[in-house]
């Protein structure tokens, strides 16, 4: 039965690869400049495409500070929205009023954080070159503390404290959208492993464990979970081939964040999906690990593949995100493999 399952998985993986290659051939023959989802105007399920601006938008209802909002949009492969012209104001505010009518204002990607009183967008465009209708008496920089900008539902700007929290919108233009066919995702750095039927991305920007969880989630993935020795070996190979030595600055070398932590309720190490390490299929700890006690409640992997406990907040290091291949998952569910 095991051999039959492995053959079936290989056949499905081959089908996926052949489908991708055939699509590339068709696009090339037709002279298409974009592949896959851009043609059907799809970025992510949680983004809405608006024809009036040829862009995708996501309304974030969990309120954040301006910097947090900017970071979240960047993690999703988008930018913190700001209106380029009157048309975009009209289109986006109409969408906001239709879907979230209770919100009277949102943060936008405009601030004077670089130079007091000089308002520019998150991508460096001076406000005079875009939509710039201020409310009466604004900006007034109350108490010298208002360097970020909100857009009111009537279409006017007001300057606000960057540390205040507001809803916000992330934006992705159709023109900027590229597609990773093998992993069925807009994030191009994910690489498909045919044997495991999953996609992986090694992140070279060191973060804390909790920040890494957020970064993977923003890409509609999850912090990698090892389910077998084969998968552990693959993560070791990914780690070895990544250009880690080029990364400067302070971070914890020798370890990579993974998706498990210590569950104080269960008093056991569990994956972020709730399984014990043994249930998940891999529990090979490094020598004398875990050894950190209450100060190291989150999980990582040494570069050799052995597990290690690590601080959830204090240790910045590389990490690996994992994403299911949706076509393979469909077959897995159907055939019970």
From TrEMBL:
Keywords for this protein: Disulfide bond
InterPro entries: C-type_lectin-like, C-type_lectin-like/link_sf, C-type_lectin/snaclec_domain, C-type_lectin_CS, CTDL_fold
Ranges where the C-type lectin domain occurs: 57-171, 195-313
Lineage: Eukaryota, Metazoa, Ecdysozoa, Arthropoda, Hexapoda
Official protein name in the record: Hemolymph lipopolysaccharide-binding protein
UniProt xrefs under PROSITE patterns: C_TYPE_LECTIN_1 (PS00615), C_TYPE_LECTIN_2 (PS50041)
Organism: Papilio xuthus (Asian swallowtail butterfly)
Record Pfam families: Lectin_C (PF00059)
Domain of life assignment: Eukaryota
CDD domains listed in its UniProt record: CLECT
